Amino acid sequence: MGSVAIGYQAGYSAQGAYAVAIGYQAGYSSQPANSIMLNASGVGMTGNTASLYVNPIVQTTAQTNLLYYDTVGYVVTTGTTSGALSTGIITASLNTITPSGGTLVLNGGMTATGSISAASFNTTSDYRIKTAVRDFSTDTITVDTLRPRFYHNEVTGKDEVGFLAHEVQEAYPFLTTGEKDGEQNQSLNYQGIIGILVREIQEIKQRLAVLEKQ
Q: Most exposed of 94, 101, 149, 208 (fewest Cβ within 10 Å)?
């Protein structure tokens, strides 16, 4: 009743009322009513609640690595067809994905509460995404207002050297996000600090060159 099935054997057997199944054998058997199932490929992807199930991973079975909307916690999570997880995206395996060149592309932002490790990082710096470009001097932006700190990072469990975002925010709010004691942790654009350091070094070298000529 009022159900939609698109794809070979999608919604094949006992599809629930007002359910939507799209893809090869998506919602193959006993798809629950009022649920939506999107399956790139795989076999017999089903579920047991009125929810959203997405299987974007090319594999021979659909029992793992599903994106699943949990109607109890109102979050998108991962798990098996029974929606094993219910507190957010805690773990997701990409072992079955072999993208071209081994590259994962995200057309959007990504936030991580833990650490991210990589052999190298590149930051988009094309002039076409930057406007109001202008030089600056240390008369207006200087390292003098920065306060390096030594601290213990509770997330990484390591002692580190760096800055406190709210202290940097007092002088350079454009280098930070969030607010002190806000709901979300503040973050700091450390690469922006590199620009300040480079400009400071350049001006110091200019002063030294003048002194050497005297």
A: 101
Q: Provide the residue range defining the domain that includes 208.
A: 127-213
Q: pLDDT by residue (tens digit) across 85-135?
A: 333 344 444 444 445 555 666 666 777 777 777 788 888 899 999 999 999
Query: From CA 77, how far away is CA 64, in angstroms rounded?
Result: 12
Query: Do 91 and 46 share a structural domain?
Result: yes
Q: Last residue of some domain: 86, 112, 138? A: 112
Shared domain for 91 and 182, answered yes or no, is no
Domain annotation covers residue 80: yes
- Return the higher-pLDDT residue of 162 and 110: 162
pTM as predicted: 0.52
